[in-house]
Amino acid sequence: MINKKITDGHYDQSLAVKCINGTFVGKKSERVITYKGIPFVDQQPVGDQRWKAPVAYTPSDGIYEAYNYARLSCQDLSITDYQGEDCLYLNVYKADEAGTKKPVMVWIHGGAFVAGGTGIPLFDCTELVKENPDVIYVTIPYRLGVLGFLHLSHLVDGKDYPDAQNLGLLDQKMALKWVHENIAAFGGDPSNVTIWGESAGAGSVTMQPLIKGSQQYFQKVIAQSGAPIQTNSVEESISTTNDLMEALGCKTVADLMKVDARTLVDTAAATVALRIFPVRDERILPLDPFEAYANGIAKDIIFLQGCNKDEMNCFVADWTVEGFKAWAADRKTKKYAQLLTDEERAKIESYCKEGAVEDWEPDSRLFGHSWFIEGAIKMSESQTKGGGKSYTYFYRVESSNPIRKSAHFEEVPVVFAHPEMIEGRQFDATFMKTMRMMWTQFAKTGNPSLSADISPDGKAKEWPLYDLENKQVMVLDEFDIHPAKESDVKIVDWDKTYFLTKYYML
Question: Which of 25, 348, 458, 486 has the fewest Cβ atoms nearer than 10 Å?
Answer without folding.
Answer: 458
